[in-house]
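Before a colleague's protein record goes any further, I have to sign it off. What it holds is a sequence and that sequence's fold in token form. Would you go through it and say whether the fold makes sense for this chain? The record follows directly below this note.
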Amino acid sequence: MRQLRLCFVGPAQNITTRRWIQWFARQGHEVTLLTVEPAKLCDVQGFRQIDLTTRALPRKVARLVSAARLAAHIRSVAPDVVHVHYLRGLAWGILLSRYHPYVVTPWGSDVLAEQGAFRDWSGHILTRQVLAGADLVTTHSQYLEDRVKGLCTTVTPIARIGWGVDLTSFRPGIDTTKLRRCWSIGADQQVILSPRLAQPLYRHEVILEAFQEVHHSLPNVVLVIPEQFPDHSYVRRLRILVEDYDLKSCVRFVGSISYADMPLWLNLAQIVVMAPRSDGMPNTLLEAMACGAFPVLGRLPQYEEIIESGRNGLLVDSCARAISEALQEALGNAALRRSAVRWNLELMETIGNQDREMMRMEQWYEQLRGNAA
């Protein structure tokens, strides 16, 4: 394939964004990222980052100025394809640029009102316009696709392309002895990991309440809570709950886990538990499945797309009692966990392989370039 000149719009601080664009940089394509959430220079590898942050202005004015700067930079770069990740705010500048072809990949918080989308009247209108004008929209779940179609019936085409998992890094069988020693987790102790961001949306407090009952029945189990992108007041409340529930000896707050270390933690865990109020299709779930951790999840329709409860995970009501019962069932049933590992590894090769997903995206880029020629 000939070299593509690709321009991405999205949060550079987010590892999911960087993984996507770095894949294309490694294939020899020329990649530029326009952002108002710049990554540290050490994380800018293989691509050019342009920081459009406008400081010392009121937030709404800064947003307009950054969107205008985005439009100007797109015209200056003159890419073969523009790909917009994360629609809100900055991405609306694609309308000012009037540039084609462009691809849109909406995130959950772009189109799910329960995650904060459309907080003001302009957001709903502009998001619909960005979607309606796109040459291609990609989604990573049927649930998100249905939401996009509900917002904008004129969107065509829509392609199902996931973030994908680096299956060379996220795999079972990684030695976690040093990690156990570092965090004083015994070799005989089972581990539950609640891996989502340390923010109220992800309801770690419900998981703590559920774990209180687990601990009474299975005292040799440890719950691990990372502190990714923390809401500090929320984390303080979680720590108070740990004190109140008398769980200090068996709960570990482990700070922010780097992406490079995440395969270790997912290998350490027998169980991953998630019970958010709302979700897209979290790549953390796919990464956990690729590492052999057993999913216990609140029952959301998007999870049902890949989890058959009782076969490769458990889907339960998102209340403490139901989660507690499911955790105890999974911890006590090693045969179920072993069977789920086999099933999930095959599933990740089919739907979760990053190389396969990005190769499909690459073909779309080439097709869109050809259509524009």
